[in-house]
Fold each of these.
Amino acid sequence: MISQKKSPGDVVVALSGATSYLGGRFVDRALSRGVRIIPIIRNEGGRGRLPPALSDAPAIHLNKFAEDEAILSQASIVINMATCYGRSNESIDQLYAVNVGLPLMLISAAARNGIYNFINIGTVLDKSVGLYAQTKHFGDELLSVLAQQSCRLILVKPDIFFGPGEKDSSKLPIRLIRELKAQVPSISLSPGEQRRYFLHVDDVADAVVSVLENISSFSYGQSVVGLGSDIPSTIREFALTAKAILQSKTVLEFGALPYRPGEPMTTDLDRSSVEKINWRPRYDLHQAITDVINRDGPDGYINLGR
């Protein structure tokens, strides 16, 4: 049973980012465990992008938050999965609004409504990587100041995750797999010696559910849950593994591109709280890549028949 402050058997989560790739996978798993979800959406136009199971659910609208805030009092836990990566040339104001302003507004509203459990999905990327990482870390720092000892603030920080049906083809893992599968002539890459704890998206979704199920094991104040595979792999190893599974003839041009400015060669993964959630990834690298190859379809479609 998931620990909560509301009545037994009635776990209610207020969730921002339900329309995201990770959010949709989390929703499926949480609902199957009897969790009720109140989606937090920008406006009513966002309802059409919600997972089908939430299409008729009462929602909190950010464009009329003062009017809808009373709905929040039904929840026992707030989870923020909303994020802005800046991949569509968003301004720094837009990055700040989503990655800093939104979680601060939600944790403040949670406190006003007697909710003392707040989960924020962050990043393991170093601040030096760019504005996305800087704003995500700044948001976490301010959340920690607001939380202090007044609530459980759990910062879930997954390393790079990927899976079938991802609509954002700009992310390196899914782009590599799709281009190798399409047998493009060549792919230009950096030397590829960065080591990352690659994860299947379903493992990340399962981990967030495990945080819910074990939330009472966390103390009040800030806790960090770093998520990653058991064994790190270099980007070169990822690309060569995908190429081998697909038997692709695509030429991988390692070293054709420079590393990004400030590119970390390793991931600083804080696993100190992982034992509290009784979680381990189900997919290793080979299994995760194979699952994408078998089930990924065009434009984010997941082929359930394979």
Amino acid sequence: MKGKAMDYVTHYREHGWVVVPEVFSCARVARVAEIAAQVSQTELAGNPATPMTADASPAGQLAPRKIDWAFPKHAEFRAFVLDGQLQSLISELIGHTAYLVRDQVFLKPARFGSANHGTRDQPAPAGHAP
């Protein structure tokens, strides 16, 4: 590994995240985003909203927060995740073959706020169990 690729690996190992530009074309990302919007609207219309699946604006308007378990919900989600270039990049970053164990597509729009339910990346607030 040389140059820019090594910079990505180093950043990932030091910070736990990295942005690698141009893995996918803008058109492909836009297509997946369009499908995510369609799937999420269908799910929101067919299921009662929960704080983990929908968010509300200050005016009470509902918007999808995320799509849980997206992989089986659309062929384009599967193709996106299984793309050879992405698989190769992830394997290079983590140092071994990558396997999808859990997936979510996050959709929370700007200016829609609700309490952060916490993640493993964030410490629990004082007085709260993790």
Amino acid sequence: MADTRIRQEQIGSGAAADGDVLTADGAGGSAFEVPAGGTPDAADVTYTPAVATDWDGDADPGNADDALDQLAERVDDLEGAGGTPHTILSATHTDTNTAAPDDGDVLTWDATPGEWKAAPPPAGGAVDAADVTYTPAVATDWDGDADPGNVDGALDQLAERVDDLEGAGGGSVATDAIWDAKGDLAAGTGANTAAKVTAGANLTVPVYDSAQSAGILPAVPQPQIVTAYANADDAHTANSTWEDINSMSVSITPPFASAKLLCMFTCRIKMDSANWEGFSFRFDLDGATQSELWTQAQDANPATTRIWLCECHTVFAGVSAAPHTVKAQWASFSSLNCTIKERRLTVMACQ
């Protein structure tokens, strides 16, 4: 093997450290650097992604350096993090007199004789990310609060997490995939889980209801009130029979289960008899449940026609969240004939 003389002016970097190799710089010169089998540079570390679609353009980034640069840019965009450190390696240079190299040899510094020699590449050759150790500064930053193990595992995990963030709208609430329509709400369903609550009808409000999967039900604001009014005369002949008071019927649907219905009835009643007299009022719910009675009686013959102002109320409890009908009813007894004048029935649903 013939000797090869390397001139000092051809070496572009400073003094070499023990184990450095001399490599071409692509511009007709050469420089000392750490060999691939020693402490590697990320650009010299091969990396094959487990899921290519986690990367920009759904393509392999090429090596660990490009992968880290891409992830740093993507994470900076999403989380406001950024910055890429740079390292400059320098060494002193001397003239080198060594035997002619074989194809593929590298120039290696031998500290014992203090000279450069041609030699095969150091053991290890190209370094794969799976062979590069990595110890996280904060283990809780990683899945399962655990060390990803090596650079390959760390890169795969970060790529997947960044891809998930980008696919979900970049971590922004405004672009989250859970939204489908105007007025949609997100409600917690358990530890670290949520579900969409679809917008309700106009003028409804969110009501907490444990029977719902998301714990919320769009409902009409409480209390819900319905009323009926009439002023046409409603005459009644004494027969001690309960009758529906004309036009005094309302329908109501409570917005929640086990509701209370507060019922109120007022009227003016004219007595048309000049005898012993009496009359009663009550409320009827769905033709199946009746309230207590309100009764008025007169023991002596009235000297003149009388007009009474009557007011009564009741509460039906435990009413279901379904359509219901409430009516005001009356009955007269003895020989009393009477006429109901102006009247109003009001029903309020509340909890």
